[in-house]
């Protein structure tokens, strides 16, 4: 129920939640005996907003000996008090008849405000990225990050190699130095070989700051692709001149003097 409430309300585009546990219980043997671990983290939801740490693990059809070892491991760690309170509110939010109407209304209004803001920021992020040159991004849905794909020219590959970086790391470092916007290169996320990506977040607040950051980032992206659209060889040219350049009556083309006719 916690997962369903979280995903259905946090989804930007109305994604439907499918429960693995519910699916297993409806399957015939031996599939309904499959061991299943379900994990939940408040830091990736509306309550934690990627800052507060806490979560839970649920096991289904798990061997008793395995559970005993997990219990031992659990006793080693202590959850911060703020994390405990936040997790409790996520699992067991205020309800009418148990808490005051004022408490329930305050909680629901704050929750709605957070979720609405997350959706607006997700849409803003998706729109900005897909309008940028040589950038493509799937819709941000139910997450706090965007993972955009980069189409890079050969000139970028050459410059990155010269600096001892992967192409996407080079892009991210240039963005950080020129705009102050921090992104993470895709080579740290197991991207498909031969592709280049970067990850960015939708968490920036206030929303006007996220808007300003994407404006700076969009201008940088356009500059970057223009700056490195040519290879090193293509950017190299030979400039030839001679004393003919000082003669207004002639020009020099490849060592061949062309005499202009004087007007009479």
Could you describe the 3D structure shown?
The protein is of the alpha+beta class. The chain contains eight helices and eight strands. About 9% of the residues have low confidence.
Number of strands: 8
Reading the helices and strands in chain order gives: HHEEHHHEEHHEEHEE
The oligomeric status of these chains comes to single chain
Proportion of residues in extended strands: 5-15%
Uncertain residue segments:
237-260
Trace the largest sheet across and list its strands: 3-4-6-5
Largest sheet: 4 strands, antiparallel
Derived from helix and strand composition plus strand pairing, the structural class reads alpha+beta
Primary descriptors:
264 residues; alpha+beta; 4-stranded antiparallel beta sheet; two-stranded antiparallel ribbon; 14% strand
Brief account:
By secondary structure, this protein is α+β, with helices and mostly antiparallel strands. 42% of the residues lie in helices and 14% in strands.
Q: Mind sketching the topology for me?
A:
Elements: H1 2-10, H2 20-25, E1 36-41, E2 55-60, H3 64-74, H4 81-91, H5 101-131, E3 135-137, E4 145-150, H6 154-162, H7 167-179, E5 184-185, E6 196-201, H8 207-227, E7 250-253, E8 256-259
Antiparallel strand pairs: 1-2, 3-4, 4-6, 5-6, 7-8
Helix pairs in contact: 5-8, 6-7, 7-8
């Amino acid at each position: 129920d916690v997962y369903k409430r979280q995903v259905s309300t946090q989804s930007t585009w109305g994604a439907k939640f499918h429960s693995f546990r519910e699916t297993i219980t409806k399957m015939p043997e031996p599939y309904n005996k499959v061991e299943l671990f379900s994990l939940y983290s408040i830091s990736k939801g509306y309550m934690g907003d990627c800052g507060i740490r806490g979560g839970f693990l649920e096991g289904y059809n798990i061997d008793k000996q395995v559970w005993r070892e997990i219990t031992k491991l659990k006793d080693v760690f202590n959850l911060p008090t703020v994390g405990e309170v936040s997790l409790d509110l996520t699992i067991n939010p205020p309800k009418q008849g148990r808490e005051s109407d004022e408490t329930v209304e305050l909680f629901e209004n704050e929750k709605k405000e957070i979720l609405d803001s997350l959706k607006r920021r997700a849409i803003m992020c998706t729109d900005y990225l897909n309008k940028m040159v040589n950038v493509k991004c799937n819709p941000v849905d139910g997450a706090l990050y965007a993972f955009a794909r980069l189409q890079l020219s050969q000139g970028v590959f050459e410059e990155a190699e010269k600096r001892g970086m992967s192409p996407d790391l080079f892009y991210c470092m240039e963005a950080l130095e020129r705009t102050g916007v921090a992104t993470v290169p895709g080579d740290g996320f197991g991207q498909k070989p031969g592709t280049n990506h970067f990850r960015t977040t939708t968490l920036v607040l206030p929303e006007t700051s996220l808007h300003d950051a994407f404006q700076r980032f969009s201008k940088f992206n356009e500059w970057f692709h223009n700056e490195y659209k040519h290879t090193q060889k293509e950017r190299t040219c030979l400039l030839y001149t001679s004393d003919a350049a000082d003669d207004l009556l002639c020009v020099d083309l490849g060592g061949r003097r062309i005499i202009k006719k004087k007007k009479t």
